[in-house]
């Protein structure tokens, strides 16, 4: 009975041991079989894996850097079993090629970078997008200024306002066909012409004139002149060109002159002008007279100027008609502070106004004050044409200074006096 029990135990233990051995052998067999079915790769081409440098070929030059990518088809190490082949061959690509699928592989597989110019320098260039005026040249306006009277020649010039320096820049180019007898010497040859340029009213005491051209009636100058004046005051100025014949032993002879009203010319852009030369008669002597009355009331600190009338106004317009009015400018320390003007009188050279214009001026400011009285010919188009002017104030010579001093010595009284009008 005991032997049977022992035999049963031995067989049971033996069966358990055999079962365990068989189970271990089966697991080892399955594991080995699974390892042989996994494909092996000749390189690390899977997404996210490290790729050895041998897979990439890098070629560099001094100017360009090119990077090319190689794609390989991965084959298993052994073709054992149909289970391995059923998975087929696996081909993997890098991340760069996955992102560039929508594009051409040939275009995205190479990168070219220039060493001398970077993308950042093109994007953040401070001059990029800036306007270059030199690429958009503007043609100069060419004007013709003709005379109804007999022309004594033609003057060629160019005018422009320089906003950087606040100057009127005059380019005197040439004169042509100077036909006056004064340009010929005693032997019948040509004279020695030169041009004197001034801005009316004057802005300084400088004398501006060109060089003398010898023995010619078609002098070529190509000279530049500048007049300091603010752009707001340009429209109230006239450029006067006086042509003379140089004489070494006697007084220079006048050939003629040209006047340019800057109020009728757009000098913000360069303006080229051809103008007929006229006889120098309209700017010589006085331009007429104006009767003014001055009074100062110290308690109210008010200066009143009464424009009574004018007489014998010399008009420079081609039509000969005259519609005069008077403009009074208050000048303090050389700067124009206020402007007032009278009404316009139609078709007369001896107008009567009887109009009072007042300015509030403290007593301590009177020594720094000047009154500029300007007579203009009204024009429906543009600004009025300049006729003449006078300046009243301390330090002025002649009747202009005398009239001002009489007002200061007789305050609260009206002091009337005739004043001559001048072009300068």
From TrEMBL:
<keyword id="KW-0812">Transmembrane</keyword>
<feature type="compositionally biased region" description="Low complexity">
    <location>
        <begin position="77"/>
        <end position="92"/>
    </location>
</feature>
<dbReference type="GO" id="GO:0070382">
    <property type="term" value="C:exocytic vesicle"/>
</dbReference>
<dbReference type="GO" id="GO:0030276">
    <property type="term" value="F:clathrin binding"/>
</dbReference>
<protein>
    <recommendedName>
        <fullName>C2 domain-containing protein</fullName>
    </recommendedName>
</protein>
<feature type="transmembrane region" description="Helical">
    <location>
        <begin position="6"/>
        <end position="26"/>
    </location>
</feature>
<dbReference type="InterPro" id="IPR001565">
    <property type="entry name" value="Synaptotagmin"/>
</dbReference>
<dbReference type="GO" id="GO:0005509">
    <property type="term" value="F:calcium ion binding"/>
</dbReference>
<dbReference type="GO" id="GO:0005886">
    <property type="term" value="C:plasma membrane"/>
</dbReference>
<feature type="domain" description="C2">
    <location>
        <begin position="151"/>
        <end position="275"/>
    </location>
</feature>
<feature type="domain" description="C2">
    <location>
        <begin position="286"/>
        <end position="408"/>
    </location>
</feature>
<dbReference type="Pfam" id="PF00168">
    <property type="entry name" value="C2"/>
</dbReference>
<dbReference type="GO" id="GO:0005544">
    <property type="term" value="F:calcium-dependent phospholipid binding"/>
</dbReference>
<dbReference type="InterPro" id="IPR000008">
    <property type="entry name" value="C2_dom"/>
</dbReference>
<dbReference type="GO" id="GO:0017156">
    <property type="term" value="P:calcium-ion regulated exocytosis"/>
</dbReference>
<dbReference type="GO" id="GO:0001786">
    <property type="term" value="F:phosphatidylserine binding"/>
</dbReference>
<keyword id="KW-0472">Membrane</keyword>
<dbReference type="GO" id="GO:0000149">
    <property type="term" value="F:SNARE binding"/>
</dbReference>
<keyword id="KW-0677">Repeat</keyword>
<feature type="region of interest" description="Disordered">
    <location>
        <begin position="73"/>
        <end position="101"/>
    </location>
</feature>
<dbReference type="InterPro" id="IPR035892">
    <property type="entry name" value="C2_domain_sf"/>
</dbReference>
<keyword id="KW-1133">Transmembrane helix</keyword>
């Amino acid at each position: 009975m005991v032997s049977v029990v022992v035999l049963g135990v031995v067989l049971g233990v033996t069966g358990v041991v055999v079962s365990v051995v068989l189970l271990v052998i089966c697991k080892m067999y399955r594991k080995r079989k699974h390892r042989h079915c996994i494909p092996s790769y000749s390189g690390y081409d899977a997404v996210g894996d490290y790729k050895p440098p041998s897979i990439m070929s890098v070629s560099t030059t001094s100017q360009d850097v090119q990077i090319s990518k190689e794609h390989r088809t991965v084959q298993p190490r052994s073709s054992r079993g149909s289970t391995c082949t059923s998975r087929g061959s696996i081909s993997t690509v890098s991340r760069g090629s996955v992102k560039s699928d929508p594009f051409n592989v040939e275009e995205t597989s190479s990168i070219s970078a220039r060493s001398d110019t970077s993308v950042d320098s093109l994007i953040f260039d401070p001059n990029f997008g800036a306007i270059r005026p030199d690429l958009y040249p503007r043609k100069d306006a060419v004007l013709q200024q003709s005379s109804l009277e007999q022309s004594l020649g033609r003057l060629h010039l160019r005018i422009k306002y320089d906003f950087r320096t606040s100057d009127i820049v005059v380019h005197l180019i040439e004169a042509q066909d100077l036909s006056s007898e004064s340009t010929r010497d005693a032997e019948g040859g040509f004279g020695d012409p030169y041009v004197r340029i001034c801005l009316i009213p004057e802005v300084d005491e400088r004398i501006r004139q060109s060089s003398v051209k010898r023995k010619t009636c078609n002098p070529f100058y190509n000279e530049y002149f500048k007049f300091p004046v603010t752009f707001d005051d340009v429209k109230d100025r006239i450029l006067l060109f006086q042509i003379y014949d140089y004489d070494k032993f006697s007084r220079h002879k006048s050939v003629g002159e040209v006047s340019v009203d800057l109020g009728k010319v757009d000098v913000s852009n360069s303006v080229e002008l051809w103008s007929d030369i006229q006889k120098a008669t309209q700017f010589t002597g006085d331009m007429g007279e104006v009767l003014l009355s001055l009074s100062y009331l110290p308690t109210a600190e008010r200066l009143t100027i009464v424009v009574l009338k004018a007489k014998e106004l010399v008009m420079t317009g081609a039509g000969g008609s005259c519609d005069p009015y008077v403009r009074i400018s208050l000048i303090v320390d050389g700067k124009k502070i206020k402007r007032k003007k009278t009404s316009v009188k139609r078709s007369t050279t001896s107008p009567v106004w009887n109009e009072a214009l007042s300015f509030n001026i403290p007593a301590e400011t009177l020594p720094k004050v000047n009154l500029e009285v300007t007579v203009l010919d009204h024009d429906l188009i543009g600004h009025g044409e300049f006729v003449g002017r006078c300046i009243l104030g301390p330090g002025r010579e002649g009747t202009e200074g005398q009239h001002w001093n009489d007002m200061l010595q007789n305050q609260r009284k009206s002091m009337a006096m005739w004043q001559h009008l001048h072009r300068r």
